Amino acid sequence: MRAYVNGIGALGPGLCGWPATSAVLAGKDCYREKEPAHPAVTILPPNEHRRSSDPVRWAVHVAQEAIAQAKAEPRDLATVFASSCGEAGVLDRICAALATPQRQVSPTLFHQSVHNAAAGYWGIATGCQRSSTALSCYDSSFSCGLVEAAAYLCMDEEPVLLVAYDLPPPPPLFAARPVRAKFAVALTLTYRPGSNSFAVLDIELKDRSLQPPTIMNDRDLEALRLATPAARSLPLLSAIAKGQSTSVCIDYLNQPLLIGVAPWTF
Amino acid sequence: MEPLVLSAYTVVTALGRGLEPTYEALLSRHSSLQPCHFEDVDIHAYTGQVEGLETRSVGSGLGRFDCRNNRLALLGLEQDGFLQAARNASERYGNNRVAVLLGTSTSGVLTTEHAYRERDLKTGALPNSFIECCRTTHDMFSVADFVRAYLHLSGPAMVISTACSSSAKVFAAASRFIKAGFCDAAIVGGADSLCLTTLYGFSALDLMSTGVCRPCDENRDGLALGEAAGFALLETADRAVKTGAVALVGYGESTDGYHMSHPQPDGMGAIKAMQAALARAQAKPDDIDYINLHGTATRANDLAEDRAVNAVFGDRIPCSSTKGWTGHTLGAAGIVETVISALCLTRGLVPGSLNTRRVDPALRCRVALENDFCSIKRVLTNFFGFGGNNCSLVLERL
User: Fold this and answer.
1) Where are the domains of chain A?
2) pLDDT at A210 over 80
3) What CATH number has the domain spanning A8-194?
4) What 3-state DSSP class applies to B380?
5) Which residues of B are catalytic?
6) For residue B196, what are the domain limits?
7) Is the complex ipTM more than 0.95?
8) Distance (Å) from the alpha carbon of B206 to chain A's nearest alpha carbon
9) pTM greater than the 0.95 cutoff
10) How close does chain A come to B335, measured CA to CA in Å?
11) How far apart are CA A199 and CA B241, in angstroms?
């Protein structure tokens, strides 16, 4: 399965935007893991922005960056939103409310609790009416999202925006799902190369094998990769940033997802 | 698209376990909805609650998965020979070539709701018993993880959670995964079980009827929640027994891009989903013999869906919602109503909308009120979820 990369958005500790992230991953800048990252979402209408959760803002932020880089019209892209924890913060507030004698659930909070909240807000912000999948696959959520996006390209040959995002759940849920870092990444993918394509991916799901996942050489980046499901994308992003032909391996449950990565110039 | 045969399929709702009690209820026009008696919930609503889940468990070896949602999923797997069909598929294709693609909206959140009542008074910490099983109960991926473990499958898997279109979109995902070569066959479906989040949440949104739901009725006043699990084994037509079987021949996915919980009034997103499903099935609107509506019985859904169906199909094709039988099973609605549509196809039944007394005169579609027996070849079924997420499927009797 072949996919062309036309835009990337990235946001994480010390990784604010694709230009900065790319420079760090290519080894041109050192990684400052303590530098905080904040989403700057500009496309959500004020009411939606006010109501939106942190995961929604992180997801929409990187989606916006990837679309801008690809010079794409957001209404033209189907979307795949991949997240393990989803709206854990909203669920925490609902479960806390349900544990009180009154059991008063805020209606706004309830409709924000769906796993496809980020996808829904993206649709409202852009007016996009194309297909949108919101999925969850524990620590393999990024690779699963890439597989779903690749399968979509294969079937429909239309562009896809893949967004993977995970933020630490608030306490007390954190103890049960200790995702330790915030990270979000977005890739705009096309079936055919275009004038904005800059990398090509060959995605193949292998049989069970002993092939281990590709890890990050930098100790702090490797810690980030393991800290949050969305950051399992870092080896792939790193290969794209380096602009060399290589292959990376990311676990998709029991199977290795082997991704050939090469630079592309039109 | 290449048709995908539903080689085996089953469903458990409050109507009963498996295809036969489901079909019998359709015939006898017996609703499963009753005044809500779920736990200590104190809201005036009717629900379709599956009995017997409180006293079951998911069994030895997989105890970590034990929660209402996975109990319901297991009950689904056990009906209509589905377990055997899944095992046969695993042997035929290889256990890493059969994908498990399931839908749910709230997964095992009921377990989390209970755990929040038992938080440590001083620290606020959740009980250790919950912390240990959060991944296998509360987690959104839990139901696919469980089914995969139960069936000893090790291929691709995921949970799609797009509210009420969840377990319809898994049919589309299976089509894509098979076309792209990520798997050879897929187990699709899902489970969604009653929980306080949805009962109190829909109540807070003022979208729940205080009685049975009455889809398309002029006096409809909201939905009734149900719970359900169901599964289908999907195989390409060249590898499956075709005669008399039901196949997925089209799907369409779209979004409204309009509002998180209100449908787009002109139904434009829904229209796009239906048109895409027809195009993929290479079918014209008149090739459809029956439309199984999303038909939640809220004022806004039924009106917007009617506008959309009418724009695509006119007023010739009989339509009905089967939620009067099962309630709205949310993330499981996709598999429940797909299985009901398959029953309608194989047995030649157009079910008349249950609990609907007088069709809302504002609606333009041909809403069937009585059961009608006739030969039907193709059914279109609709699913619309929060976040404006839409999916339509076209099923055909081969």
Assistant:
1) 8-194
2) no
3) 3.40.47.10
4) strand
5) 164, 294, 328
6) 4-397
7) yes
8) 9
9) yes
10) 17
11) 43
